[in-house]
Design a protein that fits this description.
- It is a single chain.
- This protein has 6 helices and no strands.
- The N and C termini lie far apart (about 50 Å).
- With about 120 residues, it is mainly α.
- About 5% of the residues are buried.
- It has 2 domains: about 60 residues, no CATH class; about 45 residues.
Length: about 120
Amino acid sequence: MKHLKQLALLLACCVGGNLISALLHGALPSNVLGLTLLLVLLICRAVKLHHVEDTADFLLQNMAFFFLPACLGILDIFADIKGEILAILAVCLLTTLCTAAATALTVHIVLKLQHRENEEAFDRD
């Protein structure tokens, strides 16, 4: 029963994201708005982490399952995109490198800020 309640809460955030996206006339993707809604609820402590943690972990561990429809959809249109496959792969590679670089830069900045915070705390003692 616990997992059903957690799933219902996660689905409610998804539906909320859909509703907000519809109100904004699709200006922002509903999945992003749903996750933002969940984040806001967690930050405001309207939802506690233990209310969604088990089901969210299960979904993350089985994420590959959710990519199957997209992969099968690509197989359906492969004949149409065959001529553009190199361009598509180049874009995938470039965006992967950009994402890795942005992640590395973010981690570097956060570690630098944490190190500075630790030094300031050490100086105060």
